[in-house]
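Researcher: Next entry in the queue.
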Amino acid sequence: MKHGSPIFNSLEICAGAGGQALGLEQAGFAHVSLVENDAHCCQTLRANRPHWHVVEADVKKYSGLACRKDIDLLAGGVPCPPFSMAGKQLGENDERNLFPEVFRLVDEIRPQAIMIENVKGILSANFTEYRTFISDQIAAFGYTPGWTLLNACDYGVPQLRPRAVFVAIKNGKHEHFQWPAPQIHAPMTVGQTLYDLMQEHGWNGAEKWSRQASSIAPTLVGGSKKHGGPDLGPTRAKQAWASLGVNGHGLANDAPQADFDGMPKLTVRMAARLQGFPDSWQFSGKKTAAYRQVGNAFPPPVACAVGQEIMKCLAHKAIFQVAV
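Model: Structure for this entry, 324 residues:
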C-alpha cells in the first residue's frame, strides 16, 4: 500500500480473461500489472480495462524486481492440467506446472499476501506431498499459508464449480485473515439466470425451458488448445446439461429464434453469465477462443469474496499501525 493511500495494489500472473482480476478489482485492489501469454486473453483484458497494464509474456520471463515496493498482493490462477483429475496428474513433473515461478516471484516481490487458485484435484491425496512442499516453500519466506476448497455456488454463482484456493499472509498479519463465509441465499437456477438471454429473439419455448432448467449448472469446462472446438465437457457433463434442457455438443452463435424446436445450446455470453461475469465483459477472438477464456476462468464473485477477506486483513494491520 502506498503511503497515504487506502488502496492496496496487486500483481496478477496467468491472468486469463480477467475473472480473478475483475473480482479483486471489485474487492478494492488496484492492479499494477497483469501477466498473461495468450494473445486472445490479453486482447480481452485490454478491451475491458484499457487502463490496466497488461504484459503479454511468459511468466517465466517476467521479473518482479522492478515492482517490489508497489505490490501488496501477488495473485494468479496457475495452469490446472498438472493437477486435474481428468488429466495425467503429473503435478510437479508436468512442464506446465508454474508453482516454481510463484516461489520466485514471492522471493523477488515479498508481497503482504498471496492468492493462487487451481482445480480441486490439487487437494486430493495424490498431491498431499506437493501441497506440503508448496506451503513449506512459501512459509520459508515468512508467510502463514493455507488451502481450502470453495464452491462457486456458495457465492452467488449459478454453477457447481469447486476450486482450490491457496492464501498466504505475511507472519504477524495472518491472524486477521479468515476464509469467506458462504452466502445465506442459494444462487439462481440456470433457467432463472439465462431466461432473458434465451428469449432474446422471442423463442416460444423459453418459459417452458426456464422451468425445466431448475437447478444450478454443472461445471463449465474450458478445454485446452490441443483439443477440438467448444463443447460443454465429457459425456457425463453433457448428460447433466441435457437434464437442464441444454445441448452440450457445442455452442451457438446466437439465442434461439422464435420457432426453434429442441434443446438449445449456450452462447458464449450465456456461459459467461453462468461464470459470474457481467454482461458488459467482452471476450476477444472467435467462438472457440472466447469460450475457452470463459470456461477456464475463476468466477469473479468468488475472487471478490476471497479478495475482500484479504483486504480486511491487510487494512486491519494498516489501520492499527496508523492508530499506534
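Model: Residues 300-323 form the longest helix (24 residues).
Researcher: Noted, moving on.
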